[in-house]
Amino acid sequence: MREARTRYAHSNPTPDEIRNALWRMATEAPTNCQPATGGTWRRFLVQFRYDVRYKMVFIVTALFLVWVALQHGPRPRVLHYMWSYGDLVVLPEDEVTSQGAVCLDGSPPGYYLRRGTGKGTKNWIIYLEGGGWCWDIPDCYRRSHTEYGSSKYFKWSFGFDGFLSNSPSVNPNFYNWNMAMLKYCDGASFAGNRTDVVVHEGKQLYFRGRRVLRALLDHLMAHGLDQARRVILSGVSAGGLAVMLHADYVKTRLPAHVIYHALPDAGFFPDMRNITGHEHIRILYQRSFNMQHCAGGVDKDCIKDKSEETQWQCYMAQYAYKYVQTPMFITNSGYDYWSLWFIYHLRCHPEQCPEKRDKLEGYHKKILSITYQVRKSEKDGIFLPSCYIHSLTSFAYTWTDYVVSGTNLRDAFYKWYSGKTPAVVANYFDEPYPENPTCPWTLEFYNRVTQRLKAYDFFVDPE
Ligand SMILES: *[C@@H]1O[C@H](CO)[C@@H](O)[C@H](O)[C@H]1NC(C)=O
Ligand SMILES: *[C@@H]1O[C@H](CO)[C@@H](O)[C@H](O)[C@H]1NC(C)=O
C-alpha cells in the first residue's frame, strides 16, 4: 500500500509537494536551485509566486511609478490619457499606389481611430497631426526614417486627450464622437503635390501630402464617414496650419449635407523677422513650398491672386486665412513657445532678460495684428490666451485650464459652435503677459519646455 502510494506520488505529486519543492528551490542556496530552475526570469517568477517579500517589493515599486506618473504627467488626468486612445489603421497598398498617395518614403499613410458611441456615432472629429516641416531634401530624407515620414514607424495606438478625450468631464460636448487622427507623414502640412520622385542617398522620396489627405478621407468615407451628420476638422501646429489650408477642400470630400466646422490650433506661424531683424522663417517656408510643389496643394483662389514670386504666401496662415469659407474657431497662443523660439529667436524667460520685455511685447503685437482679420470676421471666433504654450486642444489641461474673459477654451469653443455666442463676439483676446494667472509662466515650466525645444533644434540657417 505504502509503496503504491509512493509510486503514485512520484509520478503525480500533490500541490503541497510541488509548492514545498518550489519553495525550497527558490529559497535555498543558489547551488541547489540553479539546475532545477533554468533562467533568471523563471527563478524570479517562482520567487515572486512564493515569496511575500518579492510581492511587497513589486507593489511598492508599482505605487512609486504611479506616483511619479502623477507628478510628471499632465496632472492626475494622466489616467484619462492612458485609457483614451485610437487604434492604428494603415491604408492597404493597392488603395494608395494607384493614386500615388504615399508618405515621404513611399509607404502607405494611416490614421488612428476611435469609434463613436451612443449619440455620437454619426459625428466625427477629423484631427490633423502636427510635427513641424522638413525644409530641404536632406531634412526630408532624415524625416523619412521617422514616424513623421513613414508608416513603418507608426505606433499601434495613440493617446487621445483634450478635444479628443473620451472622458465626459474633460470633453463633455464631444467625448462620444468618432475621432480620426490623420498621421502627418509628408513634411509639408498635407500640401505637397509633386509628381516626380526625388532620389537622395539612393532612397526615393515622395512629396504627396495633398494626395495622402484625399486617400485618407476616401478611406474613411468607405468606413462610416459617409454616414456623418456633423464633422469638425481640427489639428495642431503644422496640422493647425493644414486645417486652414485644406478646410474648404475637405468639405468637398464629405457628404453634401454635413454640418461642418473647423478648429485650427496653433496654426498661425507669423511671417516676421527674427529678434535681430533678419528674414528667416519665410525663407524656410518658401523652400518647403517650392520643393514640394505646394502650389498644387493649397487654395486655388489664393494661388490665382498671387504672382509666382508670392505664391508661397498661400502656405502661411496669415495670408491664407481670408480665402477660407468654412466657419472656423481659431485657437492660438499670443506667446506661442514654438514660434518665439524658432521664428523670433527669443530664447530667454522674461524674468531672466527684463531688457527684452519690449521685444516680447513686439511679438505679441504682431500676433494681434495678423489675427485682427479673425476678430473682424462674421463667421469665425478666436481664443488667444497670453500663455507660454503651443498646442491648446491636445491635452486636458490646455483644453480646460487657461481662462480668458472668464471662459476656458472648451467652453468658448462650444458656445461659438452651438451658436450661443455669435461669432462677432466670440473673440477671446487676453491681456499681455504677465496678467493672466491661469497661464503657466513659471521658470520651472519654461525650463521644462525649452529643454525639449533644444532637443529639436533642427535649424538649418538659411544662407
Ligand atoms: C536671426 O536670423 C539670422 C539669419 O538666419 C541669424 O543669423 C541670426 O543668428 C538670428 N538671430 C538670432 C538671435 O538667433
Ligand atoms: C496635383 O498633381 C496632379 C498630377 O500632376 C494634377 O493632376 C492635379 O491637378 C494636382 N492637384 C492640384 C490640386 O493642382
TrEMBL record:
<keyword id="KW-0812">Transmembrane</keyword>
<dbReference type="InterPro" id="IPR029058">
    <property type="entry name" value="AB_hydrolase_fold"/>
</dbReference>
<dbReference type="GO" id="GO:0016787">
    <property type="term" value="F:hydrolase activity"/>
</dbReference>
<feature type="transmembrane region" description="Helical">
    <location>
        <begin position="52"/>
        <end position="70"/>
    </location>
</feature>
<protein>
    <submittedName>
        <fullName>NOTUM protein</fullName>
    </submittedName>
</protein>
<keyword id="KW-0472">Membrane</keyword>
<dbReference type="Pfam" id="PF03283">
    <property type="entry name" value="PAE"/>
</dbReference>
<keyword id="KW-1133">Transmembrane helix</keyword>
<comment type="similarity">
    <text>Belongs to the pectinacetylesterase family. Notum subfamily.</text>
</comment>
<dbReference type="InterPro" id="IPR004963">
    <property type="entry name" value="PAE/NOTUM"/>
</dbReference>
